[in-house]
Transcriptional regulator with XRE-family HTH domain
Amino acid sequence: MSDLGDFLRHSRSRIEPAEAGLAGGTLGRRVPGLRREEVAVLAGVSADYYARLEQGRERNPSAPVVDAIGRALHLSPEAREHLFRLAALNPRPAVVPPPELVAPALLDVLEAFPSAAAYVLGPALDVLAENAIAGALLSPFGRERSMPRILFTHPQTATVFTGWEMLRRATVHALRLNAGRFPHHPAIGSLVQELTASSPEFTALWNDHEVAALTRAFKVFVHPDAGRIELTYQTFEVDDAPGQQLLVGTPAPGSPSQEALASLAPAGRT
């Protein structure tokens, strides 16, 4: 089974017949999701051809075929991009970004958010740079700055993060998306190998083959010094550094979270 085949198989297992406009429901089906033959009909290809794609016996589908399959499976834009990459039809070059290199101008941007938690993530979702508040917010994790390691291996995860199960899923989906975008990035490969060996929870989520970008998110921290802090995060792609993302977490104005977050700021700064 190829990576392309695995992705197709898991994707069709998540689509109910009714979602795809097929009559009959799930009655009499032994496994969840669509059958291979149904995906083939919806995509306008032969059942044999689609079966060869899932089985890894056909590795060079055309762009129109991949596009039709993506539409048949109701894939998100990020998942469609991932599908194209797995089919060796990259929508843009997979450039390997320089490791842990954050431009000085971007470091200045971090400091432009004195009342928010701002940091830069690399392709392997490790924190490459952070402002003072973000550093204080992440202080319960010591010097660890790999978000996947924090979420799946650090003993403080369940204490600091409320809703950590959702954060785990979002992190794995984003990591798999980056693994498709940067297939030769050494940090991603070694991290996946490490976590699949040490965390059954990571392995289960990784094997689901779901992909999604980090976008707007709501996170709740329970900081040992500042208490409960609720933040809304926005994510921004760094255009001149492929794979890097700027994340900015802000509290609701006038809320207890704003006061708690401000208490983490260095003395003399707000």
Remarks:
- The chain has a mean pLDDT of 89.
